[in-house]
């Protein structure tokens, strides 16, 4: 199975159409793992599941949460009158949809959605992001 081609012009992956109902919360990202070659450079075939046991995994960010919530200032006269959802602010994540992420396996939660395997990863477990230059 090969990874689908990525279109950087409209920033949508084919899987994103299937995932539109999923909302990632907080500082987490949803990652589709890459399938690595089952054969080494020396010609040895790796057993199934070998790459899943590695400490470090690689995949594409398909969804990203809003970020780290920032507390609302307490200097308001009547904070109980505030409606829910007012003044919710976040520190945004570095990871964006379409980034190639290298992350720690032990910090990831594996899920299966629509018969596809994904990882939910906290930004703390993401080690490196590769991002294509955005068109000007």
UniProtKB/TrEMBL annotation:
<dbReference type="Pfam" id="PF00166">
    <property type="entry name" value="Cpn10"/>
</dbReference>
<dbReference type="InterPro" id="IPR011032">
    <property type="entry name" value="GroES-like_sf"/>
</dbReference>
<keyword id="KW-0143">Chaperone</keyword>
<dbReference type="InterPro" id="IPR020818">
    <property type="entry name" value="Chaperonin_GroES"/>
</dbReference>
<dbReference type="GO" id="GO:0044183">
    <property type="term" value="F:protein folding chaperone"/>
</dbReference>
<comment type="similarity">
    <text>Belongs to the GroES chaperonin family.</text>
</comment>
<dbReference type="GO" id="GO:0005524">
    <property type="term" value="F:ATP binding"/>
</dbReference>
<dbReference type="InterPro" id="IPR037124">
    <property type="entry name" value="Chaperonin_GroES_sf"/>
</dbReference>
<protein>
    <submittedName>
        <fullName>Co-chaperonin GroES</fullName>
    </submittedName>
</protein>
């Amino acid at each position: 199975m090969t990874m689908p081609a990525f279109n950087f012009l409209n920033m949508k992956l084919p899987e994103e159409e299937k995932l539109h109902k999923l909302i990632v919360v907080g500082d987490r990202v949803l990652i589709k793992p890459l399938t690595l070659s089952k054969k080494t450079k020396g010609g040895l075939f790796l057993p199934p599941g070998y790459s899943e046991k590695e400490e470090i995994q690689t995949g594409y960010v398909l969804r990203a949460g809003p970020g780290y919530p920032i507390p609302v200032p307490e200097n308001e006269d009547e904070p109980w009158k505030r409606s829910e959802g007012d003044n919710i602010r976040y520190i945004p994540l570095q990871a964006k949809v379409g980034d190639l992420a290298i992350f720690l396996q032990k910090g990831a939660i594996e899920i299966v959605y629509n018969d596809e395997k994904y990882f939910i990863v906290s930004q703390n477990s993401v080690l490196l992001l590769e991002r294509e230059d955005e068109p000007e």
